[in-house]
Prior knowledge:
Layout: E1 5-14, E2 17-27, E3 32-36, H1 43-51, E4 58-63, E5 66-67, H2 73-78, E6 81-84, H3 96-104, H4 121-134, H5 150-162, E7 168-172, H6 180-195, E8 199-203, H7 207-213, E9 216-221, E10 224-229, H8 231-236, H9 238-253
Parallel strand pairs: 3-8, 3-9, 6-7, 7-8
Antiparallel strand pairs: 1-2, 1-4, 4-5, 9-10
Helix pairs in contact: 3-4, 3-5, 4-5, 5-6
Bound molecules: adenosine-5'-triphosphate (ATP) and magnesium ion.
Amino acid sequence: MTDTLRVQSVAIRFGGVQALTDVNFAVASGEIVGLIGPNGAGKTTLLKIIAGVARPDSGQIVIDGEDVTALPTARRVQKGLAITHQIVRPFRSMTVLDNVVLAAGHRFTSNPLTVLFHRARKAEEERAAAILARVGLAGQELKAVTALPLGHLKRLEVARALAVEPKLIMLDEPLAGLNHREAEEQVDTIARLNAAGVTTILIEHNLREVLRVCRRMLVLDGGRIIADGDPHSVIADKAVREAYVGKAADHAAA
Ligand SMILES: Nc1ncnc2c1ncn2[C@@H]1O[C@H](COP(=O)(O)OP(=O)(O)OP(=O)(O)O)[C@@H](O)[C@H]1O
Ligand SMILES: [Mg+2]
C-alpha cells in the first residue's frame, strides 16, 4: 500500500543553524504518530516543509505517492493535507462559524474570502456547524473569536484544519497552554478523528497525552531523527533519555 506521507533525506539550514539533517520517515494510512523533541529540535520546521510553507535545501516530500516538493501549500491542501499552528491564527474580527466557513473554502478556491459571499453559503454554514460540534464547540458558533478562552481557540484551530476534509492532519502543539482536563478532551477529539480515518501527526511536549493515543513515536533532536518506533521502547531508549526525555518521561510514567 502507498504511504500517506514520505519524508526523504530532508535538510534545511537557516544561516548558521542546520535545522534539519537527513530526515527520513514514512507514515502509513491511518497511523497516529507522535513527534517529540526538545525546544529547537526542528519539529515546526519539519511541519512547515511538509506543508510547503518552507522549502527544504534538499530532499523530497511525497504525499500519496506523488512528489509534492515543488507544489505550493494550496495544492497540498487540495491533496488532503491540513496543519494546525503552534500559535493559533484565527481571523479575530470574525465569528467562530465564519472562521470555519472560510477555512473550508480552501477545498475549492485559492481565494476563500469569496466563500463568504458564495451562493452555497447556507450549506457551508451547516457543514461548519457540524465540524464545530465534532471538536466540542457546539453552541459557540456566533461568538466573536476574541471572546474565546485559549482552550476554545485551540479547538477552533483543529476545526479549521478539519474543514478541508484532510486525509492527513499535522498538529503543532495542540495542547500547549491547556489544563489537564482540556488537554485530555482535545486529545480525545484527535483520537476520534484518527479512528474515523484521518492519518495524524501529533507534535507535542505533553508526553502523557502522546503516550495515551500514539502507537508510534518519532524523536527529533538537533534536527535529526534519533528514534522511531513503539512509544514505550522509544522513551526507554538510552539515547532518547539522554538527549531529551529525562525528567519528562519519569513524570509521564509516574
Ligand atoms: N525562519 C527561521 N530563521 C532562522 N532560524 C530558524 C527559523 N525557523 C527555525 N529556526 C531555527 O531552527 C531550529 C528549529 O526550530 P523549530 O521551530 O523547528 O523547533 P521546534 O522543535 O519546533 O521547537 P519548539 O518545541 O520550541 O516549538 C531552531 O534553532 C530555530 O531557532
Ligand atoms: Mg515548534
